[in-house]
Amino acid sequence: MPRPSARRTIENAIRRRGFERVAGVDEVGRGCLAGPVVAAAVVLAPDRPVRGLRDSKLLTPSARERLYAQVVERAAAWALAAVDPGEIDRLDIHRASLRAMRDAVAALVPAPDFVLVDGFSIPDLAVDQRAIRGGDRRCAAVAAASIVAKVTRDRQMRRLHEADSRYGFDRHKGYATQRHLEALRRFGYSPAHRRSFRPRSLSELSDRMG
């Protein structure tokens, strides 16, 4: 049975309060061992709906690609930001994720006047915001952001695979699959890996997946 689509109920309620450009923001790659964390911010156009938006994790790769194309074509505005592994190591993954989301919102043109964030509030954001637990499943704009971020990051991971095929980035996208863990044991860390995370054992790596 297909999962229900995310709705515009929250965005519409905020627009009734007088806000016009309501952005959704989400990030992907937080739980990975390699690659960047990527955030997207999306302002959906009320008169150009995108049907079937939902949390990117609930979609097949082909459905994500199809919805990505519709979102970037029909959205009133969208923007991306990423933090690379070296900066993740310097900041820690939580602060790196917040930075990516803040930078994505700041890159929107025109700027939003309200932001809906999946999970937690973004510090130092110069616009009204609301954090929504499970926002990528409940809120259409956040779901759209999750799709744009996921497709963008998956493409980046495929490019990393083309540069270094030892780790299988094209399949697991940097997550701690068994194949990835075995490659780490065999080859060690690559420049694409987050070196601040040094697992003591294979089981510890598996616990961090997701």
Structural description of this entry:
The chain is of the alpha/beta class and 210 residues long. The chain contains 9 helices and 5 strands, in the order H-E-E-H-E-H-H-E-E-H-H-H-H-H. Helix 2 crosses helix 6 and helix 3 crosses helix 4. The longest helix has 24 residues, at 140-163. 43% of the residues are buried.
Task: Describe the structure in brief.
With 210 residues, this protein is of the alpha/beta class.
Search tags:
210 residues; alpha/beta; five-stranded mixed β-sheet; globular
Number of alpha- plus pi-helical segments: 9
Placed side by side, the strands forming the largest sheet appear as: 3-2-1-4-5
Kindly name the structural category. Answer: alpha/beta
Note the quaternary state here: single chain
Main beta-sheet annotation: 5 strands, mixed
What is the CA–CA distance across the termini?
Answer: 24 Å
Low-confidence stretches: 205-210
Strand content: 5-15%
- Using only CA atoms, what is the Rg? 17 Å
Helix content: 40-55%
- The shape is globular
Number of strands: 5
| Helix and strand sequence | HEEHEHHEEHHHHH
| Mean residue pLDDT | 92
Question: Topology of this structure?
Answer:
Elements: H1 9-16, E1 22-28, E2 37-43, H2 61-74, E3 77-83, H3 85-91, H4 93-106, E4 114-118, E5 128-132, H5 135-138, H6 140-163, H7 169-172, H8 178-187, H9 202-207
Parallel strand pairs: 1-4, 4-5
Antiparallel strand pairs: 1-2, 2-3
Helix pairs in contact: 2-6, 3-4
